[in-house]
Structures are given as C-alpha cells and as structure tokens.
C-alpha cells in the first residue's frame, strides 16, 4: 500500500489521539488531525480502509532494555527471558508483555533487545481498534521512529506537552516539560538534535536544529517507518494475516461457486455410482445368458464380447448356420420398419425355412417387410393376415438355400 495511516495514542483512552495519512510515493502529508479521546476513534475507521495502519504508543508506556545473555540467543533463552527480567521490573512479571527485538553483542557478551509494556493496557487498545474495524499492521513506541544519531547524541521532537527522545539505537523516553530538564542533566548527551523548535530545552549540550526537517511529528515518524524492523505485534498480539481486498470483494461469489461445483460433483458422482451399478447388473445378466446359451463354457467377463463373437462365428459354419443367416436378415428389417414385432419364430432345418409370426400396425407393414427381404435375395412367402383390434397379425416364411 502506498498510503499509511499513523495513529498515536496516549496513556489512557481519555488522552488526545493524533493521526496522519502519509503518501510513501511523494512523501507528502495527505491529511492529519487530532481526536479529543478514544470515543471519536470511529472517525478513523473509513480512513483506515485500503491503507497500512501503524499504531504508535507513547514512549512513556513502553520500556526498552538490552538484556545480557549467558549464550547466543535461542529458543530456550526466550522461554527463560521473563525470569531474567523479573528482578529488573517493579511489578509482577506476569502483568507485562515482553516483545523481542534484535540479538546482538555488548563487548563480547551476547544480548537481546526487548520492549516491555503492560499486557492488559496493550490488549485494551488493540481490542478497541478491532471493535472499530481498524487493524494496525504494526505497533511501535513513537520515539523509536526518531532518526538515530551518533553515539551519545540525543534526538528530540515536541509532541503535545511532551518531548520525545531517542538516545542511541535502543533507548527512548518521553519527558514532561515540567521535569524534562532534570532528565537531560542526568543523561548528559554530547549533542541535542531537535526536529522542532527547542528554545525551552536547557543548554546542557550543543543543539543542532534540523529546520529543513521540521514537520509534524507523525510525518517524521512515517518517513522513518521503513528503517525500523521492530514490531510489538508478536506472540499473543501477532496480527492476523490480512485477507487481500480481491478476496473480500469476491468471497461471497467464490463461496457460492464452490458450493455449486461441490453439488455438481456430488450429483455426478451419485449418477456415476448408479450407472456403474447398472453396468454391473447388465454384465451379470450377459454372463448368465452366455452360460445358459453355451453351458460348460468358461466365462471371462472382460472378454465376454469376443467370446460371444467367436461362438457365433463357429456356428456359422455348422448346421445352425442357416438359422443364423435368416435371423440376421430379419434383424436388418428392424432398422427400416417401425411397429413390426415378431411374436414367434420356427425354424425348419431340413427345408432351411424360418417362419415368423408377427404383429404390425397395418397390412402395408407386412408388405413393406416382404419387399425388403426380397431385395436381400430371399425367397419370401406371406401367409394369411388377420385383424386383431388395432393391430394386424400375420405370418411370413423366409427360405434360404437348402
């Protein structure tokens, strides 16, 4: 996303909330403002749509530490980290959320950067944002986004009634104007680099004004955002994987299409099972018929078609060949004549004659059958024809070579 929404909250929900929309392409402020309290947070819900949201916490509520380690950072040390910090905090360690930063070295000893804040306090803020459909991708202490200076040099900027300070890579603070001088005297920086007018700061060290970079604090933070990899959204507060916009737009249609495809597959699968069962039944009937026609023959279902063809071919050269030849001519009639139904067949092997008793819709059907068979070179005799209600019953005799 090319636009960022920066939201900075205070210690409580009653404190003012600063917000700013920043364009990453041309590094320009698109819009900015201040809410009186968290009750006005719904005003930012629409501004958060299609923008990367960063939640900035007051540096006064997040403590950064470098913890010395007995060995190189590993999973076991991460599990032991709360016990290593227990003596360094003034409250119950179970009330705190510990976020892990980058491991490093202090001299020759391994160390790890950690950020500590009240667990319930952070959970309440994130729950409030979630209630208004605002999902921060990153959560950071605000002062960590001040530009990092040389060793012993201090970066400061004024925000509200506080001065935000960054002293080195992993040391931040938020000081009130009423007691900030005492803090600075104790810190003893070698130089103070300020990004807003600093006339009110005590002259405890040389000051360097970055007037060319004087800007709204959140605009300065937005420019530094890509330079800081740390994120408080980890562990129990890790951000849920955000669904792409195209999925939100097309989710309903895709789900409906998926259901339709699933139903189609289910119906076709059911039909396939039924057709397979029918095929199995027909195969069983074919096997039974073959065994009845050719008793004693071994049936191979996967070769049944070839077996039947072979048996018929063998019959063509025997005494049954005449019968098969005549019936073959009769079968050809079915393709050309409708409503002609044989009822009985009688075959005289000695005379090589086939007598067919059949029924048809009219006298002309028998004449049509006789003509077709004669065209095939057969000797055809038509017997008597009689009406039987709506149908005509008669006999036809086919004779082949004796």
TrEMBL record:
Membrane-related topology note: Single-pass membrane protein
Domain GspL periplasmic span(s) in chain numbering: 247-399
SUPFAM superfamilies: Actin-like ATPase domain (SSF53067)
Keyword Nucleotide-binding in annotation: no
Compartments, as annotated in UniProt: Cell inner membrane
GO biological process annotation, one example: protein secretion by the type II secretion system
InterPro entries given in the database record: ATPase_NBD (IPR043129), GspL_cyto_dom (IPR024230), GspL_pp_dom (IPR025691), T2SS_protein-GspL (IPR007812)
Keywords: Cell inner membrane, Cell membrane, Membrane, Protein transport, Transmembrane, Transmembrane helix, Transport
Predominant location category: membrane
Family as reported in the entry's similarity comment: Belongs to the GSP L family.
Name of this chain's protein: Type II secretion system protein L
Organism per entry: Pseudoalteromonas amylolytica
Origin organism lineage: Bacteria, Pseudomonadati, Pseudomonadota, Gammaproteobacteria, Alteromonadales
